[in-house]
Amino acid sequence: MGKPLTKTQIIAEVSTKTSLSKKDVANVLATFQTLAEKRVVADGQFRVIDLGKLVVRKTKARMGRNPATGKEIKIPAKTVVKFRVAKSVKALAKR
Hints:
The protein is elongated and about 55 Å long. It is α+β, with helices and mostly antiparallel strands. It has helices at 7-18, 22-43, 87-93; strands at residues 45-48, 52-59, 62-65, 72-75, 78-85. It has a three-stranded antiparallel beta sheet. It has a two-stranded antiparallel ribbon with strand order 3-4. The relative contact order is 0.11. The longest helix has 22 residues, at 22-43.
């Protein structure tokens, strides 16, 4: 497995394959990110067809342990956003 692509590398790759300018691709990605953020906040999820979806999940409060001291600590409940990969993408990873 190689290094993940940087934002600049993604923009350059998409720009090359679509013949759009890097500035236009950057604007599309920024708009896509804003849309995803708004929909996750409003609906609790944002689906990207054939890729996966962002979903909001609530975690329960639990007891944990400080790895440095070994002392038990209380970890509060919180809301997190997770990405659930689509089945078609999971199937590619199994090849």
